[in-house]
Amino acid sequence: MELERVILSPAQKALRINLNKDIYGTFAEIGAGQEVVRHFFRAGGASGTIAKAMSAYDKDFSDAIYGKQEKGRYVCKPRLDNMLNHEYKLMEERLNREDHATKEFFSFANTFATINFQKTIQGHGWMGVKFQTAADREPNVVILHARLHESDALLQQATVGTLGVNLLYGCFYYHQRPKDLLQSLYDNLNRDQVEIDTIQFEGPDFAEVDNRLMSLQLVKNGMTEAVIFSPDGQNLQAADVLYKKHILALRGSFRPVTKVNIDMITKGLKIFESDIKVEEDKVQVLFEITLNNLRSEGEIDEQDFLDRAELLCSLGQTVLISNYSKYYALADYFSKYTTERMGIIMGTNMLVELFDEKYYRNLNGGILAAFGILFSRDIKIYLYPWFDQENEILYTTENCPVHPRLKPLFDYLVDNKRIVDIKDFNPEILSIYSKDVIDMIQHGHTGWEGMVPTYVDSIIKDNKLFGFDANKPADADFVPPTRTKWSESLNSN
Question: Model pTM?
Answer without folding.
Answer: 0.91
